[in-house]
Structure formats: structure tokens, C-alpha cells
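User: Could you check the structure of this?
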Amino acid sequence: MLKSWLRKEISGKFPDIEFDILTPPDDKMGDYSINLVFVLAKKNKINPADAGGKIMEEFLSDKEFGKKFSKIQFVPPGFINFYISEHYLKNSLKEIIKERENFGDSEMGKDTKINLEFVSANPTGPLTVGNARSASFGDTLGNILKKTGYKVSKEYYINDVGVQVKKLAESIELRMKELKGKNVEFGAELYQGEYIKEIAKDFLDKNILEKDISAQAIKAMTDRARSSTEKMGVQFDEWFSESQLHESGEVKNVLAELESKGFVVEEDGARWLKMNDEQKAVLVKSDGSTTYLLNDIAYTKNKFERGFTSAINVWGADHHGDVIRLKTGVSALGFDPDRLEILLHQLVALKKDGELVRMSKRKGNIETLDDLLAEVGKDAVRFFFLTRDLNTHMEFDIDLAKKESKENPVFYIQYAFARLSSIFAKTQGTSAGNAERIKEEEELRLLKDLVRFPEIIEDISSNYQVHQLAQYAFNLAGDFHKFYEKHHVIQDNDSELQSARLLLAQGVHTVLKICLGLMGLSAPEKM
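Assistant: Sure, the predicted C-alpha cells are below.
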């Protein structure tokens, strides 16, 4: 990977210097740009021009830099720009063809085991569009981490303990009585959606006893969640029940450990986690019931004791205040809090016919994940949620997601893949090809896109900015469409040029297929 190579080589020449490698917005400013001149000039208290001259001497005298870059340029006041050579680009294409679906693989995360927990919705209602955002992000992040050598376990945490679970059971029990012809009265705090009626009817048909309603309700809702995530193409390695932590005594043991270490104080009949001199958080309520915080501390300890190097939790933005509390609790047990990373996703609004759709889980007037999947399909659901940074609010435009035109980004990407597939169908595959015939501006643009793919994957494995992959795939598809509309791959009188362009097409086809696979999208050969 050229960017990694560049960082390693520069760090070797200028040790203990922190610098940035940027990707300029315009090729005329180079393919990479570094701010090393500014950093050195400031550190040594010299003129940037003098520092730039010293650095340029180092690069220009190194033959390895000459093999990879056609030009290295100092740009006042303090940037050095690197231009990738055509020779390097063409050799890279041969590597892509050789590595095929393994292109972009690395051992970046070798021997690192990650527990990746996402969705984990309360089992009191169907999965929502907000859960869909978590599912799309978490599953794609897990795929990318695996590609860079991490051992990843995707996990769904079932919150099957607490007040909301009791309300779920009570809601179903009242519906069962109503279906039997009895007069019942629903409190505003109970669940009233159509799914409650469906479960109540099913329980009556199966003669579920009153004492078993709670356990069977959790099972029914968990089965629904499993079905919904599978429709999205998400497969979890583990479905972990919160009740396991209570039955095994792990919650009680964690509380005792926190108490023995002096992190628990009693006040108003409750027990609190002492965070600092001014802040505390409830662990056990005055009625003796445990809070989500204590349960989550025990759950995190359980993950580490299962051998995971680190844990990544994908939560909704409403849990913002819980992040520091959980990290404090984990640290109090003696674990490095940096082993736990919590990523928050912002709210999602559905837009249809130009208007926002109102949602409410308790009242039941909700656009569920299943509804959205049925209306626009798995690919659109997954991709649309991947187009925005996790930490930004977003509107999901249902009408746009259903369009079969270049306005719809997922259609635009898949159409590029289908176009490539049709080329190969017409030529009965590809031939060896001579990459030296590749020289047009649009062709070189595609080569630069392909070279950057492994860098994108490694960056995402470090910063978790999964939307960068969606943007990359969209840009690659766009650059291919521009090439396709300006140049013919199939040539009547120039078989050498045809072979060269088939080689390029095969490279783009390979990388697009990898991108679609990582995002959990289908790769249609015809559209």
C-alpha cells in the first residue's frame, strides 16, 4: 500500500516527527501531500523554504521514491506533493488481477480479537429504521475489520431483564384476555402495537400458560429480531442474553468487587458508582433492582474474560451520557478503559412523498425495519445508511431509494458492475493484456482509484468511518461510467488496446465486487 509505504519511509528519514499525509482534492496538486515542512521548520525554528530544500534532497536522492513517483514537488509555504508514476499504477493493476478478491487484505489486526456488539434493541417491539442504521454500519465495519486481519465476533445483546420486559409481558397478557372476550383497560405505558395482538393470538393458539408469557414473549421478539436482521443480510455470531449475567451471579459479583475496591457509596437507599468527588451513577435502585449500568459493566467484564482484546459497542445517541459511566465502571474493575470503544449513531427520519414519517414504538404507528425492507429492498436500506457519517442526523428518502436511475447511488454503483459484467460476457472473459497501452486520462484516473482501495480499507479499520467505503465505491463507479461513455473497451481493429482495456475493466470489476461484498450488497451481472 503506497500510503503506508510513504509514511514508513518518511518516518525512517525523519524519526520522531508527527506529520499528516493528505489526499489533495485536485490531481494537479499531487496524489499525496505532506505537511512535513511546516513541522520541521517550526521544530528547528528555521525558514520553511530552507526546511523544504533539505527534505527535497532526501526524497530526490532516494531511488525507491523515483520508482513510485514521477514528480515530487515543494510548494510554498510548506507542502510537498507526490505524483504517482504511470509505471507504478500499471504494475499495481497486475497485482490486483493476481490477488482478485484478496486485494486489500492485510494483517493489520493480526492476533487482535474484537467483540463487535450492535443493534441490541430492547425486545419490546419490532426493529426500527434506527436499528437498521446500526445493523448496516456494524455489519459492514465487522466485514472490513476481518479483511484487515482482525478476528471479529458480531454480537447481539438481548435485554431480557427489567421493567420494560415486564410491561411487554403484561401488554400481551391483557391482549390475550381481550381476545377471550374480557373487558380490559390498557395503561398509557403499555405496548399497543399490532405486533402485540399477533403475539397474543399466537400464544392463545399455542395455549401458553400465564407463568410462561414473559419468557415466551422474549423468545418471540428475539426470533423477530433475528428474522429482520437476516433479511438485511446480517448474521450474528452470538445472541447473548442479559439474564445469563444474573443467573451466573456475574452481576452480583461485579457489584461486590466494586464495593470492595471502594467505588460504591450508599445514599437514599440506593447504591451508586462513585465516579469522582462530584459525580456518581446509580448501580442498584432503592427497590433492589439493578440498573443498565451495573449490568453493562458485568457484560463488558464478561467480554474481556471471554478473551476479547477489545470491545466495540454501537449505541444510539440517546446513550451519550452512559459512555463515561460505563468506561468509569470498567476502569474501576482494573481494565484499561481504552479496550472499550462506544460508537454512537444519530437519529434517522424517514421521508416519503416529500414529508417526514412519524414514528412511535409504544403506540405502534411505526415504520419498522421489515416495512422499509419490503418497500425499498435490502441493498438500498444498507447502502443509504452507509452514505452518512454515523454521528450525523439523516433523512432516509424512500422515493429516491426506489428509483432506478443514476440519481439513486446504489443503483449507480450496481449498474457500473453490470456494465462491466456485460463487457466480459461479450468478450468471453479477459486476456493477459498489455497495461502499457493504458494512457488516457480517464484510464489513469481509474488506476489511481484502484491503488487507493487498500488505503481506504486500512483507514476505516483505524477510524471506523465506514461511510468512506460507500463514498469510494460511488466515486469509482462514477469514474468508470465516465470512462465507458468516452472510450470503447471492445475494439474492432486493435486487439492489443482491447486487451489492455479488458485488463483495466477486470481491475475495476474486482474492486467493485469487493466493495459490494463488504457493504453486504448484491452484485448483479444484468440490470
